[in-house]
Specification:
The structure is a homodimer. By secondary structure, chain A is mostly helical. Helices cover about 70% and strands about 0% of the residues of chain A. The first copy, chain A, has 2 domains: about 45 residues, Homeodomain-like (Arc Repressor Mutant, subunit A); about 120 residues. The longest helix of chain A is centred in the middle third of the chain and has 23 residues. The structure holds a DNA duplex.
DNA sequence: TCAGGATCTGACCGATCGGTCAGGCATGCT
DNA sequence: AGCATGCCTGACCGATCGGTCAGATCCTGA
């Protein structure tokens, strides 16, 4: 019955990704995941310290890319910041569609967990950049709606090829973002 | 200790609206609501048959307006449908900011409950209308992102006056929607 | 005055949650 | 052969969930 380490570990991770994306983090029990893998709940907790650690390992790649994008944003202002933020976030959203779907509406509470302490600040900076660092309400509203909308919606486009979805989202963002004042 | 019917009933409804908007439907227990009102959990269940009935009564006004919007949409096509959908949904989102926040990410599961059986079809038609009934992927993607983004984001603008928020969102939607082909 | 309905509550229920623990069972090293 | 180690499991734990119920308390009208 005993399989190689990496095998079961990876299967649990994959099953969790599938379930979380459909029923959310809180809406998925360890029992659900174990059932999908075909093992016991105790086995899930043998491979992962707790439910939160499972989520953290699942989100790690996406968070790494988000961090990289945050680094690219430092120093950029105005239209340049908007363009980098738009391209970077759209690409991230398309590549990590399923991981982002996990956050469905549970973003605020999930961010309270220590493993995701910095994400809130990063997404705030991303929103600021997409607004061209403008403090006009219209610009800030547009940036927030776009980021939230793409996060929320991209999971529903599982059947659309990556590059087609990326092009459509990028075109949308460029149309929708409030242009910064000409210097 | 016993208060008039409408008083406690209304207080429970208001407390539920506040708590649901912050921690979501599933994330809020009947105990939480009772604590906020200052009564027992049994009292909450005396005034409402169950948790779902409490949610249904809370959402009823917003659902009524959504139904009205759906009626206005019948027969409209192209740019006319887009404009009615944009104005109608932005207005609804602004007026019912808190009610919509309740749905935070729990939309899919909440729709399974019998009280919200028709909402899925209505929101599908709304998305179609906002896309100008076009079947181009770009138009459908833009419509979905805008609807999801506004739903998700409008709860965070509690400090912005209704008319200012409405104007900003409407301008955003008009910029962002993919224009329908000229005839 | 008193019966009866409306309002409210503490105690309780079964189900499910995340998590713990002792032990079973292979495998591989000495 | 004997032992250690990694993998896995059933049984169990306390907490919390939505919901039920019998009864206490209050208000009102006859």
């Amino acid at each position: 019955m005993a399989r190689a380490v990496s095998e079961t570990h990876g299967e649990i991770l994959a099953a969790a990704a599938r379930r979380f994306a459909v029923t959310g983090y809180r809406g998925t029990s360890l029992q659900d995941i174990a059932r999908e893998v075909g093992c016991s709940k105790a086995t899930v907790l043998y491979h992962f310290a707790n439910k939160e650690a499972l989520l953290a390992e699942l989100m790690a790649p996406a968070i790494g890319v988000l961090r990289d994008l945050d680094d690219q944003l430092t120093g950029k202002t105005g239209a340049a910041a908007q363009e980098v933020a738009a391209q970077g976030f759209v690409d991230l959203a398309v590549r990590f569609r399923r991981e982002i779907a996990v956050l469905r509406g549970e973003f605020p509470e999930l961010l309270c967990q220590p493993a995701f302490a910095h994400i809130q600040q990063i997404s705030d900076r991303l929103r600021d950049a997409l607004a061209g660092h403008s403090d006009r309400p219209g610009a800030r509203i547009a940036a927030l709606v776009l980021l939230a909308g793409i996060s929320e919606a991209c999971a529903e486009f599982a059947d659309i090829p990556d590059d087609e979805l990326r092009a459509a989202l990028l075109a949308l963002v460029r149309r929708a973002v409030e242009p910064v004042d000409a210097p």
